[in-house]
Amino acid sequence: MQNEIDNVDLGILRLLQKDASLTNKELSFKLNKSIATIHERIRRLKEQGYIKKIVAILDRKKIDRNLISFSQVLLNDHTQKTLNEFEEQVTKFPEVMECLQMTGAYDFILRIATKDMESYHDFYRNKLATLANITTVQSFFVLSEPKSETAYPI
Amino acid sequence: MQNEIDNVDLGILRLLQKDASLTNKELSFKLNKSIATIHERIRRLKEQGYIKKIVAILDRKKIDRNLISFSQVLLNDHTQKTLNEFEEQVTKFPEVMECLQMTGAYDFILRIATKDMESYHDFYRNKLATLANITTVQSFFVLSEPKSETAYPI
DNA sequence: ACTGAAAGATAGTAGGC
DNA sequence: GCCTACTATCTTTCAGT
After folding, report:
1. What is a single molecular function from GO for this protein (chains A, B) (predicted)?
2. CATH class, range A7-47
């Protein structure tokens, strides 16, 4: 079993990133391969970890997540212990959709989804700000989303 | 047709956000409803826009997107024309996965996915920096991803 | 609104090229 | 590695409650 990827695999990944509800039959037509071939390719792409998961993307406004905040966090120090503790605790908060350790002036960027500014404030005061070793938190809020993609162009 | 959502709908959304390859049969078992009911609920959730799309999430490192940058962009002015032009042009770049207009010191945050620092540099010099009306670009790079979720806890 | 069952479509498997 | 053909399973529809 080789670990290289060809144009058929790329085509499958390209299409499934945009719409994973496409059937093998539809893929086989678009990519000029038999259904069985498509089936086997998808099995391999999952097995080899190219496809991590298939998920439903929801309209966040419909489920009352109207406010997205990006919060840049600076910690007091950067010992293994402090970093691990912060990560462990902050990733437990359901409001935190994303926690990324970054280069630059701040240590982490958090993407935080809440119902509105009031619930963000509540999260900030009663959850985020209670964590140990935080020096600074700088928050920005999303005004509009001209582009938001999960699909990598490949 | 009512636009309210009940516990069965919530259960479906909760499960499909995590794994949209679940069959109606599996959902019907987990939620104690008939297959036909699940089927009808999902149809409605799509029709009403709760479920925007079903997508495959890829492992970006497997497809050679090893570097993620967050770039904060400040524009020269904030006329309708300048904002629209910037949005229109920056969203066309395939490297730009996300373009968010923000409150605060900067106007936009971009999430940029490239192969490595060299290809980021190429993008920056030959694409992003060529756009009109940019005052400042401040970029940070992802070191690690302690948490990265597409599923809202509901 | 929910259900069970029928009909049609798709996924998954196996054997041959 | 790709295909056709087969079987199991799933989706989709619909009459009945």
Report:
1. sequence-specific DNA binding
2. mainly alpha
| CA-based nearest distance B24→chain A, Å | 14
Which of A55, A137, A148 is most worth mutating to test chain B (most B CB atoms within 10 A of its CB)?
A55
Can you list the pairs that A100-103 forms with residues at least 24 positions away whose Cβ atoms lie under 8 Å?
Answer: A100/B68, A100/B70, A100/B142, A100/B143, A100/B144, A100/B145, A100/B146, A100/B148, A101/B142, A101/B143, A101/B144, A101/B145, A101/B146, A102/A72, A102/B70, A102/B140, A102/B141, A102/B142, A102/B143, A103/B140, A103/B141, A103/B143
Taking 80 as the threshold, does the pLDDT of residue A3 lie above it? no
Q: By three-state DSSP, how is residue A112 classified?
A: strand
**pLDDT, tens digit (0-9, with 9 covering 90-100), for A61-72:** 999 999 999 999
pTM: 0.95
Nearest CA in chain A to B83: A146
Q: B13, B27, B46, B58: best mutation site toward chain A, by most A Cβ within 10 Å?
A: B58
Q: CA–C1' distance B37–C4 (Å)? A: 11
CA torsion B41→B42→B43→B44, rounded to 10°?
Answer: 50
Q: Give me the CATH code for the A67-141 domain, please.
A: 3.30.70.920
Residue ranges, comma separated, of all CATH 3.30.70.920 domains in chain B are 67-141
Residues A55, B142: C-beta atoms closer than 8 Å? no
